[in-house]
Design brief:
The chain is an all-alpha fold. It folds into two domains: about 90 residues, Rna Polymerase Sigma Factor, Chain: A (Orthogonal Bundle), CATH 1.10.1740.10; about 70 residues, Arc Repressor Mutant, subunit A. Helix content is about 70%, strand content about 0%. The longest helix is centred in the first third of the chain and has 23 residues. The protein is globular, with a radius of gyration of 17 Å. The N and C termini lie far apart (about 40 Å). The relative contact order is 0.11.
Length: about 180
C-alpha cells in the first residue's frame, strides 16, 4: 500500500487534515499521515460498495493519489472526512460505470467461513441493489456506526432524510433477504 518511510512528526495546529491535504502535493509525509489517519475509513466505505478486496484496495489508494495530485488548493468547505467520503464515492461510481462489474466473492476468501461468506455476499448484493442514497445511508449508519447527525452532515442532507433513507433501505433489505 501507499506508505512512506521515516517517522511522521505530528505538528500542533498546522497538522489539520485540510492543511495536510494541501501539503501532500509536495510533501510525501503529509500524504502518508493522511493515509494512516483515514485509510481504514476509506477502505471500508469502498469495500462495502464493491465487495472485492483487491478493487477496494486499489480504489483506496486512488483516493489518496487524487488528494496528492489535485490541481486546486483545497478549502474547508466541510469536515475533511465528509469531503474524503465524497471523493471515494465518486471514484466508486466512476469505476462501476467504466467497468460495469458486479459483486463477487473472491475478496472474501479466507476472511470468513463458507456459509458466512455466502450470507455476507447475499447481504452485500442486496445492499448493492439499493438506491444510491439508501445504500450510502445504510453503509454509514450501520457499517460505519455514524450518528444520524454525522451521516446528514457527511451527505449534505437533512437528518429527516437520513432517517427516511435508512428506514426504506432496511425495509428493502428485510424483504430481499427473507
Amino acid at each position: 500500500m501507499l506508505l512512506m518511510n521515516g517517522p511522521i512528526k505530528q505538528g500542533g495546529q498546522g497538522s489539520d487534515d485540510w492543511d495536510l491535504a494541501n501539503q501532500a502535493r509536495t510533501d510525501p509525509r503529509s500524504l502518508d499521515l493522511l493515509f494512516r489517519r483515514h485509510r481504514d475509513f476509506v477502505y471500508r466505505a469502498i469495500w462495502a460498495q464493491v465487495g472485492h478486496k483487491a478493487v477496494a484496495e486499489d480504489l483506496t489508494q486512488e483516493v489518496f493519489i487524487r488528494v496528492a495530485t489535485g490541481r486546486r488548493k483545497l478549502f474547508r468547505r466541510a469536515a475533511f472526512r465528509t469531503w474524503l467520503y465524497r471523493v471515494a464515492a465518486n471514484l466508486v461510481r466512476d469505476h462501476r460505470r467504466k467497468h460495469r462489474w458486479e459483486l463477487d466473492d473472491s475478496g472474501l476468501e479466507g476472511q470468513v467461513g463458507e456459509s458466512s461468506q455466502q450470507n455476507l455476499m447475499d447481504i452485500l448484493k442486496a445492499i448493492d441493489r439499493l438506491a444510491r442514497r439508501q445504500r450510502e445511508v445504510v453503509l454509514l449508519r450501520i457499517l460505519e456506526g455514524m450518528s444520524t447527525e454525522e451521516t446528514a452532515d457527511l451527505l449534505g442532507i437533512s437528518q429527516g432524510s437520513v432517517k427516511t433513507h435508512l428506514h426504506r433501505g432496511l425495509e428493502h433489505l428485510k424483504t430481499e433477504l427473507s
